[in-house]
Design a protein that fits this description.
mainly alpha; Four Helix Bundle (Hemerythrin (Met), subunit A); two-stranded antiparallel ribbon; Arc Repressor Mutant, subunit A
Length: 237
């Protein structure tokens, strides 16, 4: 890199805002993809997104590349980045894998979780319940995802955690849309209460069963919405 007369210490300080900008762009773009503000199957228009996010194309392109690695966008040669869109087969295969991974992570977490990790999950749980009572779906969804990630982390198996993150990232936009049926949303909340109870009791078998059923219920809701033509047509503006 060309030396512009800036000391090494000053150069390091100057890099912080750029990294912070890059992270912010990735977070905001991820939310837009998950919440459907970028429609599944749509091409990501760099010019429009740069104007919308008020950033240059360099951090935007870096963010898109990383979100491609997460599976939220497909990077297609000669076409660019496209927001991922699932077929029913994709959904069935992804949730089949996730159900197995979450069952394993729940079982291990019940045996290995620390007091600090349990306290954090409980705090997230009660914040999530508050969002449910206010019908704040975006906040509820983010806290829900953090709870599942925290249980996965508590399993203490980095390879399991990495595999889970890679698959789960791809279906977050689908999981975001499952609140349309209020009765099923209520059922999901009850399942989370049961999860917490099993985790506090260190009941590995119960937590494995609850997490498996929870994921399969989510899968069934997604498939139903997909078959009804609702899952890609009701995203918020």
């Amino acid at each position: 890199m060309q030396n512009c007369g800036v000391s090494e210490q000053s150069s390091n300080v100057l890099e912080i805002p750029r990294r912070a900008l890059h992270d912010e762009v990735m977070v905001r773009l991820r939310e837009m993809l998950i919440e459907g503000r970028i429609e599944p199957g749509a091409k990501l228009n760099e010019r429009e997104l740069s104007m919308r996010l008020q950033v240059s194309r360099t951090p935007l392109r870096e963010a898109i590349k990383l979100l491609g690695a997460e599976g939220l966008v497909d990077l297609i040669p000669n076409r660019g980045a496209v927001a991922v869109k699932f077929t029913e087969t994709d959904v069935l295969q992804a949730f089949e894998m996730l159900a197995g991974l979450e069952a394993m992570s729940g079982e291990l977490a019940a045996l290995r979780i620390s007091a600090a990790q349990l306290a954090e999950i409980k705090a997230l749980h009660y914040e999530m319940l508050a969002c449910f009572e206010r019908r704040e779906w975006s906040g509820y969804h983010r806290l829900n995802a953090r709870i599942h990630a925290a249980i996965n982390e508590a399993a203490g198996n980095p390879l399991l955690c990495k595999t889970y993150r890679e698959i789960n990232a791809r279906v977050q936009s689908l999981r975001f849309r499952t609140h349309q049926d209020k009765a099923k949303w209520q059922q999901a909340v009850q399942e989370h209460k049961d999860m917490l109870a099993a985790l506090e009791a260190r009941n590995a078998a119960a937590l494995r069963r609850i997490l498996t059923e929870h994921l399969l219920h989510t899968r069934d809701t997604v498939v139903e919405l997909l078959r009804n033509g609702e899952i890609y047509s009701s995203a918020p503006a």
